[in-house]
Amino acid sequence: MPNLEHPAYPAADLLHLESLVPCRESQVSMLLSIFGERQQFSLPSIFIYGHTSSGKTYVMQTLLTTLQLPHVFVNCVEYFTSRLLLEEILTQLQSSSSGTEQTCPVHCDTLNDFVRLFKQAVASRELQDQTLYIVLDRAEQLREMEANILPAFLRLQELTDRNVTVVLLSEIVWELFRPNVGCFEPFTMYFPDYSIGHLQKILSQNHPPEYSADFYSAYINILLGVFYMVCRDLKELQHLAALNFAKYCEPVVRGEANERDTRKLWKNIEPHLKKAMQTVYLREISSSQWERLQHDGGEPGQLKGLSAHTHVELPYYSKFLLIAAYLASYNPVRTDKRFFLKHHGKIRKTNFMKKHEKTSNHLLGPKPFPLDRLLAILYSIVDNRVAPTANIFSQITSLVTLQLLSMVGQNDQLDGPRYKCTVSLDFIRAIAR
Question: What residues does the ORC5 lid domain cover (predicted)?
Fold first, then answer.
C-alpha cells in the first residue's frame, strides 16, 4: 500500500515520487498536505531546517519537479546580495514563461521594483490560478543581507497579492533567524538525521547490476559498521561506498571466495577501510589517486593526513611561531635558559630531573604560556633578527583563528593573553623539516 496519497495528484506520480525519496515519506506527506491543490492558497512561508545531508534540498527539488509544480529554486550562497537574489528569481520566472533560457537581463534595485516586476512575471506566465513556490536554499545567508529582505520574503504573498509560497531551507534553527523587531512567523518543519537503518536502505539502492542486492547490502552493512560512528553524512558515505567497492569484490573476481563468504571478504577490506578513515571529509587525494594507492598496496603511512599537507600553506614566520608555541607548551619555564641561551652558565645535576622524568610532558598535554615567552623563544630559534611588528602579532591571531593555537584566560586583563599549542608532534616535525 503506498504511503503517499493525495486526491489532487495522480497515483502514478505519487508512487514514482515515493520511490525517489526513501525514508522521507512522512516529510513529503506533510508537505503535500500543506501545499494542498494547485489552485488553493498555501501558507505564505515555510521554514525547513535540519543538519547537512538530511535530504532537505533533494526532497524539495524532487517533489516540485516530479509533480510539475511551478517553482523557482535559488541558492543564496551563489546569489549573495539582495540585488542578485531578486534578479535571479525574476530571471527564472521570465525564462520559464518564455520557454527559453536566453532572456533579456532583469534589473531590480529595490523591493518595490521586485514586487512590481514579480506581478508582471506571474501575469505573463499565467500563474494566477495555481501556487508558485520560491525555494531559497542555504537561507541563513539572508541574515547577511539588508534587514528588510527576510521579512519581505516571509510576507511576499501579502505584498504581491499573488498565490506564492516562499520555502526557506537552512541548517540552523528559526530562533537564530528571527529579527529583533519581530516579523511574520513561518511554518517550521524539521528534517531529522538519517538513522543507520535509513542509511543502509538508501545506500543499498545503488548496487551494481552485475552483483546481487544481498551482496551489496552486506558490503554497505560492513561500511556503516566502520564509518557510522565518525561520519553520518550521506554524500560522504556514498562517495566511500563507490570508492571501496572494487576492493571488496577482489576475492570474488579472483575466484578466491563467493558472495556468501562474508568473513573472507571482511578480512580483505578491513585494512583498506581503516586507511580510508584517515581521509574522511578531507579530500586530500582524488578518487583516481586513492584507487591507484589501493592497487599498488600502499601503506597507511603514505597518507599523512592533515599534518603533512597543511603546513605548506602557512607563512614563513607562522611556522616559527607554531614551533615556538609547541616548545613553550611542552617545556617547563625553568628549562628555557638551558635550551635557548648560548651562554647559560653551568647547570648542576640535581634530583629535580630524576623526579620529573617519570611522566612525559606529552602525556600531560600542552600547558598555557604568556605572549612574551612565545616571542622570546621565537627570537632565539630564528636565525635573523625579527622585529616585533604588527605582522608578527597578526600571524599569531591567524594561528588562533585556524585553531592551531588556542587562547586561554582571555578575560584576565592584568596578565595579558595566554595561549596553548593544539597541534601534534607529527605536525611540528613536518613543519620543522
Answer: 216-283
- How far is CA 284 from its chain centroid? 16
Superfamily covering domain 11-190: P-loop containing nucleotide triphosphate hydrolases (3.40.50.300)
Task: Reply yes or no on whether the pLDDT at 301 is more than 80.
Answer: no
- What is the rounded CA–CA span in Å between residue 283 and residue 287? 9
Give the lowest-confidence range in 1-5, 50-54, 110-114, 281-285: 281-285
Q: Which three cell numbers stand for residue 327?
A: 616548545
Question: How far is the C-alpha of 241 from the C-alpha of 239, rounded, in Å?
Answer: 5
* Grid cell listed for 181: 523587531
Query: Which architecture does CATH list for 316-340+362-432?
Result: Orthogonal Bundle (1.10)
Q: Which residues contact 256 (CB under 8 A, 6 or more apart)?
A: 264
Which ranges constitute the DSSP H helices of 21-80?
25-35, 56-66
Residues contacting 25, CB < 8 A, separation 6+: 3, 4, 18
Question: What is the widest separation between alpha-carbon atoms in the chain?
Answer: 94
Starting at the edge strand found earlier in the chain, the sheet holding 405-408 runs 369-370, 418-421, 405-408
Q: CA-to-CA distance for 361 and 306, rounded, in angstroms?
A: 23
For the sheet with 45-49, list strands across it.
71-75, 132-137, 164-170, 45-49, 187-190
Domain boundaries, the chain: 11-190, 196-308, 316-340+362-432
C-alpha cell, 297 = 598496496
Question: pTM surpassing 0.85?
Answer: no
